[in-house]
Structure formats: C-alpha cells, structure tokens
Design brief:
267 residues, two-stranded antiparallel sheet, mainly alpha, 11 helices
C-alpha cells in the first residue's frame, strides 16, 4: 500500500523557506522582485525543456510526472511481518503440503510473493524460481533506472543552461561598458539565470533522483528477502530455521521490536 512520503514535501518547503530567508533578510519582501527576471526564466526553462526533448524519446518524457510522483509516495513495508508470513507458510506447507498454500495466496497482496509461491506450488525447481524472480528484480531496476535518469539529466542540464544564460547576460553587459551605472544591475540579472538553474538542480531534480535511488535499493532488498523466504518454503525448511535465517535481514531495532511484540503476545 502506498501513502504520502511527508519528508519529500517537508524538504522542499524547508529549501524554499531557506532560500526565501536569504532573499528577504536584507531588503524585506520587496527583495523578491530583484530575483524575478522573465528572460532568465525563459532561457533556463526553455533550454532545459529543449535539452530533455533531444535526450529522451517522447514515450519516456511522458513518464517524468509519474516518476516525480513516485518520489512523493512510499510503500508500506514491514519486514518482521514479512518474516512471520513465510514462517506461517512454511509451517503449513510442512503439515499439509505446498498445494495448501493456494488458499493462503488469496490473502496476500504482494504479486512478487504470489508469483514465487505459485511457482513453488507448480513444482518448479528452486534454481529456476530464483532465476525467474531475479530476472524480475533486474527488469524492475532497469525500469527505475530509466525513470531516475530523467531527473538526473534534468539536474545536469538546469545549471548548464543557467550558466549559458549568465554568459549571454555578460556579453550584453560588456557591450554597454560606456555606462558604468548599468554594470551592477546588469551583472545581477546575468547571474539570476545561474541561480535558477542551480536551484532547480539542487532543490528539486537531484534530491528527487537520490530519493528514488534509495527507494529502489530498499525494494530490491525486500525482494531478496522474499526470494529467500520462497525457497525456504519450497524446500520444506523447518519454520524455526527459516525464521532464524530471515531474521538476519532485520536491523537491531527491528529485532528488539519483534522480541518485545513476542513477549507481549506470550502474556
């Protein structure tokens, strides 16, 4: 189940507030007007869009909003509960056989777990099950990598176009050196494009790409645990031994929490 990842909007808001504080700390709210320059915006956003269109085909470009949306959501995952599930499946499989697990799969929402257990029920060998499930993980990583590359490239192009806008502004400024009074304001406008590009890259594109990369790593980790659980169930491993094996994937905090929950259930 997916829900809002509150840290992403909080981080964006904190970044905006930090930038805003820097802007208004000297000249107050009116200082914002100094940072608004339409030609600079057109250069940065127009150049960025052009570079993205050149770099990616239309099919992938259409995915950018879906990719960004993923950075604002997180999967509900509970590794201790996952381990308990496989311990229960292993116990039932040893008592009633693998075919008895078909009924259990109706209550499981995770398609990756279902796929692995159903392959085991169909009598597929463990090596083949591992190959099939690892191939699915590889395909998932490739899909995620392509989506993440959209944000990574945008994070590279935005500062470059900001710098290009600054160069344009400097060239125009140098043409009017006869009027010293215009040098300061002209320089400020020229640097505004670099500011826009850096802000887009370091507050939006690159941080979102980094978050998506961490989400992928976490998902791969969970799927590796699932593979170990499926093979344990398929091979008829003792539920206690399987529990010990899968518990190796738990952090110390999760182990302590699991032990506390077990003590509460015992009482």
């Amino acid at each position: 189940m997916k829900r809002l990842d509150s840290f992403t909007p909080i981080g964006l808001l904190l970044g905006i507030l930090t930038f805003s504080f820097g802007v208004i700390s000297k000249n107050g709210v009116s200082g914002f007007l100094q940072f608004i320059d339409i030609p600079s915006m057109i250069i940065v956003f127009g150049g960025l869009t052009a570079a993205m269109f050149i770099s990616f085909p239309p099919k992938e470009m259409k995915q950018i909003f879906i990719v960004i949306k993923q950075a604002f959501s997180k999967e509900e995952d509970n590794l201790p509960q996952l381990i308990d599930l496989f311990v229960r499946l292993s116990d039932r499989a040893r008592r009633e056989g693998l075919l008895a697990l078909e009924a259990e799969m109706e209550e499981v929402d995770d398609p990756f777990i279902k796929k692995g257990i159903l392959l085991a029920i169909d009598g597929v060998e463990s090596d083949t099950i591992v190959d099939i499930m690892k191939a699915e993980i590889s395909a998932m990583e490739e899909r995620h990598s392509k989506g993440r590359s959209l944000l990574e490239r945008a994070g590279e192009f935005a500062p470059a176009w900001g710098m290009l806008g600054t160069l344009i502004g400097l060239i125009l400024m140098l043409e009017d050196l006869n009027n010293p009074a215009t040098l300061g304001p002209s320089m400020a406008i020229a640097l505004t494009t670099t500011l826009y590009g850096s802000l887009l890259a370091n507050l939006i594109f690159l941080p979102l790409a980094s978050k998506l990369g961490m989400k992928t790593e976490k998902e791969v980790f969970l799927k590796q645990v699932i593979i170990e659980g499926v093979i344990g169930v398929q091979s008829g491993q003792n539920p206690k031994l399987l529990e010990e094996k899968l518990s190796a994937f738990l952090s110390y905090g999760e182990i302590e929490e699991r032990e506390r929950n077990a003590e509460k259930e015992a009482f």
